[in-house]
What does this fold into?
Amino acid sequence: MDQLIALLGYEFVQNAIAAGFVIALVSGVVSGFVVARNMSFAVHALAELGFTGSAGFLLLHLSPVLGLLFGSALTAVFIGTLGVRARGRDVVVGVVMAFGLGLGVLFITLYKGYANQAFAILFGTITGVSRDDVVLLVAIGAVTLLALAAIYRPLVFATVDPEVAEARGVPVRTLAVVFLLIMAAAVAEAIQVVGVLLILTLLITPGAAAERLTPRPGLAIAYAVAIALLCTLGGILLSLVTNAPVSVFVTSLSFACYLLARFAIAPRRRELRAAPVRAEATSAHAHEVPKAG
Amino acid sequence: MQDSPAVRFEGVTLSYGGRRIWSDLSLDIAPGTFVAILGPNGSGKTSLLRAILGLVQPSAGRIDVLGHAPHRGDPGIGYVPQHSSFDAELPFRGRDLVRLGVDGHRWGVAWSDPTADARVARALAAVEAGTYADAPIGRLSGGEQQRLRIAQALVGDPRILLCDEPLANLDLRYQQTITDLIAGWRDRTGGTVLFVTHDVNPVLRVVDQVLFVVNGRWAAGTPDEVLRSERMSDLYGSHVDVVRVHGRILVVGESTESGFNIEEPHHPPDVVVDHGDAP
It folds into this structure.
């Protein structure tokens, strides 16, 4: 404990925790929509092409964080314009991802700098972020959350009930592209903690665990944020104490949260809920609606 | 009640992907009418609803909805889409679905709003769905979900209700309940109902008009006028028999594609998440 408090005095630890807080906030909120919209594969593609963007920017001596954002946002635009419809989407994602990752390999081969830069992008580098990086990550996070708040209601409508949403005048296709861009920003953020290869641990698992805990949409997002915060900050602190990589702890914690939600908490809640719901539903059917003349 | 029609078609032709679905449909639908839209698969029944919603444009002719051209997001129209199921784990309740009907199309975050909540509660009570409105929607039966969809469509107090196969996947008792709910709304409010269905029989008691479409041709009128052997043979362009058995109507003929008759349910009944329907 004393060791932990001493560590908190270091600037690099403060940077990591500040960045981790914002990243977890963004990841938690976005993961709920990723799960509801069934977009795991797209998340993975955005992350891998974020790697390509990052490698390309390193080659040009530019900020790898901005490179991540550039790569994943460009991919989001590609996927959004080529394959918004769910059926064709995975195919387009696969086609774009394969090509982009090939480019990434080329960039990283050409890059004569430190090989551990590439390693950091692939597996996360949160304890290495600078103060400038923190400012950048907070800015990206704030813009992402504001954009998501602005489109929240119609996005929920388009996600849950696209046919009626379209009839009610919700721009379903435009929202799909805007949400891909929001995902791109969230991917660029989450990669800082867990890296490209482990991205799903922050952008799927919190949402997947949260939906097992409550049928209330607002509460589900709150739970997802809480889980993402627990995993990210817990992972950073455990990594500082043990010197093992952050991603090891984040992935373990988030997997534990999922298992707990799915097999320990959700079945008990369902038992509590099922009995009264079923009894009332049956009685509701008993009295028929008065027949129309 | 005003005299101008709720929906007016003037020589409307609808094409999709270069194929002509409808030709030259002219029809006035008076307010308060319950219209059943009938016809085999792929005859463009859904496209007709989409045209009224302003989601597709007719290639010729004019449509008037409540006195103006169709436009997306018309608050005068309530829409119950074709059956699509919800993921069982989706963190979403019936109450939330109905709330989307109040303000789901507006920008921003949905903060708590007592006025909206009260409207949702009234709409839920009107379809007697209050008791399961807080359960996860993906775990409700098809009939329960259908009631919630009707509450969602009616919560905005529309003057026209468009229903696309609302009875598909439902057992007989629930078909009756849903029909009565919709007819009851029509009787109470004087609203207009356009009801796409495969089977006219569950709604026969409440239907004022039928619109039957086959291969781009159409016939409209009261059920007794349209559902006759001569009229249907004309429409199909070959011999078709309209048979009345035990107060039910069957349309059968050699060219009613793949043994089509309007008795035939579109989908097999949904038995997967059926706890509410169990006696």
